[in-house]
Every structure is written in structure tokens, then in C-alpha cells.
Amino acid sequence: AKRNGRQRSVFYEAGLGDAAPERPDPAADLAAALDRGELTVAYQPLVDLRAGRAIGAEALVRWQHPVDGNRPPDTFIPLAEETGLIMEIGEFVLRDACWQAARWVQSSSDPTDLLVTVNLSARQVTDARTVEAVRAALADTGLEPHRLVLEITETVLMQDRDAAAANLNRLKALGVRIAIDDFGTGYSSLAYLCRFPLDMLKIAREFVDGLGRDANADVVTRAIVDLAGALGLRTVAEGVETGEQQQQLAELGCDLAQGYLFSRPVDAEKIMALIAGSDAE
Ligand code: C2E
Ligand code: CA
Ligand code: CA
């Protein structure tokens, strides 16, 4: 790992450790937060619109800072990406997600459709070590590969296409699934729908937001669902906040939905109860 103790120990050996003036070093702060266990994983349920029950969840990293409280991922993921720390954070989230999902499977009377989704950042998508990290997380937790869905934004796919394609093919060979996150908002060329081995499209919140209020949003959402259907991809609507949106998405034939209407991201115990409770119905 890049953030190993070397730099820090040189620093301490020089006797500067405690005496050093307090300079803000966000990267070191984040590395220390990971070491101290301040990073946790929240889960937001994925609801099957036909069955009307939670069949899994998206894993979302959280930083519970001792002074500032909750620091949203948007404030530290870019830094983690820049410094390479995302490889360790990503592996932490991945392992937690696989571990939790394996528990859901064990406690469910009908685990057929259960799945968990995990976000991969740009660096994770192009770094070959990610394949080994995913393989190890699955092996160590016993989670069946087809239950793990890796979410990737289209912008990431287009950045370093060859490396991304090579890695995605290796990940697919493990048996995991690939989803496009925030579909329709990135720098996108629909060519990637043919080029990459995809399983799922996540319809970005901005389209879902406009449903029933903006005729264009209705048309675009319908077109995405139809396109995905024709390509054999499942659809997930993001950011569903109203019953009208839910109903419209169900009518359009969208498969899954997530959003505040159903639940905010919650901790591992609550998601376990939500999925198990859903199961009992
Ligand atoms: P995302 O992957 O698009 O995740 C969805 C975000 O929308 C989450 O924000 C979630 O809390 C929020 N959300 C869910 N339902 C609703 C809704 O109904 N209305 C509204 N307004 N928002 C909703 P969060 O957790 O703050 O995450 C923000 C972004 O940070 C994520 O966007 C993702 O890009 C990134 N991120 C989060 N966790 C990870 C991670 O473990 N690894 C990586 N690489 N990125 C992550
Ligand atoms: Ca996501
Ligand atoms: Ca998203």
C-alpha cells in the first residue's frame, strides 16, 4: 500500500512527530480514519417493483468523523481517488458488502434474487489488483459471485477504455455483474453498451426526478427502460422519492428502484431487518 508507515516513521524518527505544527493534511487524515475504523458502510435497499420487496442494497461508504460528524463521500472519495487510497477504501467496502450479503442469503427463506451493489471508482476499474480483491472477497465470505453487482459510471468507462474493458472481462469471468451508474449523465457514447459486458443500467436521479413533471424526462426514462430491455439488461431507478414516480416506473417496466421513498441508506443491522422483514411478507 502506498500509505504505508514508511513516510510516517521517517517523520517520527526525525523526532518531529508530536512537535510538528498542526498542518492540515487531508490525505493523512483519511488514511488515519480508515485505520481508526471511522469509515463504515451504509446500505440503501433495492426494491423489486413487481414483487414490492427489498431484494438487496447498494453499499455506500460513510465517514463518521469524531469532530465533524458525518462527512459525505463526495467530500473524500475524490481525494481517495487522487492519492490511491481508494484501493484500500474500496476493498474495505467490498468486503463489508460481500459479508453482509452473505448474511442476508443465510437468513432469507427465498434468497433467489438477493444481490448487493458496490461502487467502483475510476482507479479501481483500471487497476488489475481489483480483480484479485473481488475474487478474494467472494472466496472469504462465501458470497456467490452472481449476487455481487459492481457499479461503474459511464465516464469512467470512457476514460481508459482498453484497461477498463480488460478488467471488466476478467471480473465478468469471476461471475459478478456489472451496472452502469447514473446512466445518461456522463460523457457517454452509447457504443460502450456494445463494447462492455454489462448487466444493469441505473437510471440517474435527474430523469426520475422529472417523471410526471417534465415530458422529456418521461420520454427519456421510457427510452432507457426499453433500450435496456432490448439489450437484456435490468434497470434500476435511482432517487425515487414519491409514490407517483414509483408507480410510473413500475408501469414503464423498470425492474428495481431505490430512493428515500423506500429508505435512506441505513446501517448493516437495519438493512438486515429490512431485507429479512421484506422476505417474510
Ligand atoms: P451514487 O453511487 O449515485 O449513490 C447514490 C447517492 O444518492 C447516495 O449518496 C444516496 O444516499 C443518494 N440518494 C439515494 N436515494 C436518494 C433520493 O431519493 N434522493 C436523493 N436526493 N438522494 C438519494 P451518497 O451516499 O452521499 O453517495 C454519493 C456518491 O459518492 C455516490 O453516488 C457515489 O458516487 C460515491 N460513493 C459512495 N460510496 C462509495 C464507495 O464505496 N466507493 C466509491 N468509489 N464511491 C462511493
Ligand atoms: Ca452508485
Ligand atoms: Ca448513482
Automatic annotation (TrEMBL):
List each copy of the EAL domain by range.
Answer: 23-279
The identity of this protein, by name, is Diguanylate cyclase (GGDEF)-like protein
Span covered, complete protein? 574 to 854 of 872
